């Protein structure tokens, strides 16, 4: 079959003795779970700031949900479940505090210094910033893990996108060309990427209702979604809105998963790939939603963008978050002696883009709550101690 075979893994860029008890991809998963960056996801947000309440998804809970979906789909398609799970758990490691608002602000701060991209930051984390082993920087993940993380959204190079146009963290990785950046990722990485879509589409519905940004009635005109909510209300007329939402979201996740499996199975029968390498070399993704579902989920994305991501309450959080990160970046860049060690030692020895990247790495690794507290310590006189 076309599944990625751990027996045929292309190995690691730094040689290590194999594990006696785990496959290479199980080892990758465990290294992700034990990493500092993964642990910090518990206080990094999707949409809301972490201290707004414990009912909303964080990057950690989202990653766990993506991993569950990815593993289920991989099992049904007879792919390597451990690789799909590991990729799902690692896919958000590069996100800074405060969700997309934080990424936008860091990218603006780094405009003159090669910018900021969360996918590229994920590669930087797992190949450089996680320092846990004596013989190499990073986590020394398998080739299959690294290529899946780099090509999370598809090929990153092509006729119009040379390596020189990529984010700095991609360009700086010395083995990028070995990851075949002009091809699609392997099948397990493709599954993890669409499991991400399934999770955030449906769980944003849950969080949006829980936060009061919209109500069930607002969803009734949206294809697929409205039908699911109506079906639950007809079948269980006495359920509370909270329970209706739980059941409807559960059904919607099933609809998305079944469509993904159905369309992917159709493509498998059409393309008949005999190996993971053949999957990578195809001219289109092997794992995909059907055109029908893609068309029907566009109104949902438009609704969530307008009623959730652009809601004035969310905009206020975004505005405050951007000011916090801008202030932190400016003071650390101008006064690197205010950074804690070992960041201070590194930043005071360099200038320009190199110092800016160190500052960016430090801020990107913060949790929401730590960024707020660090801002208070630096800008609020009552924070002096």
Q: How many H/I helices?
A: 17
CATH evolutionary superfamily of the largest domain: Hypothetical protein af1432
Tell me the number of strands. Answer: 0
- By CATH, the architecture of the largest domain is named Orthogonal Bundle
Radius of gyration: 22 Å
Structural class: mainly alpha
**CATH C-level category of the largest domain:** Mainly Alpha
Total count of domains: 2
Domain HD: 59-201
Family: Belongs to the dGTPase family. Type 2 subfamily.
GO molecular function: dGTPase activity
Keywords: Hydrolase
Layout of secondary structure:
Blueprint: H1 24-33, H2 36-40, H3 59-76, H4 81-90, H5 99-109, H6 118-129, H7 143-150, H8 168-172, H9 187-210, H10 225-235, H11 241-271, H12 276-280, H13 291-309, H14 312-334, H15 343-347, H16 352-364, H17 368-379
Helix pairs in contact: 1-4, 3-4, 3-9, 4-7, 4-9, 5-14, 9-11, 9-13, 10-11, 14-16, 14-17
Task: Name the descriptors.
single chain, 385 residues, mainly alpha, Hypothetical protein af1432, 17 helices, globular
Could you give a short description of this structure?
Belongs to the dGTPase family. Type 2 subfamily. Keywords: Hydrolase. It is built from 17 helices and no strands.
Fold and architecture overview:
GO terms for molecular function: dGTPase activity. This is Deoxyguanosinetriphosphate triphosphohydrolase-like protein. InterPro entries: dGTPase, dGTPase-like, dNTPase_2, HD/PDEase_dom, HD_domain, PHydrolase_assoc_dom. Keywords: Hydrolase. The chain is about 60% helix and about 0% strand. The protein has about 375 residues and is an all-alpha fold. It has two domains: about 1-95 and about 120-310, Hypothetical protein af1432 (Orthogonal Bundle); about 315-385, no CATH class. The longest helix is centred in the middle third of the chain and has 31 residues, at about 240-270. The mean pLDDT is about 95.
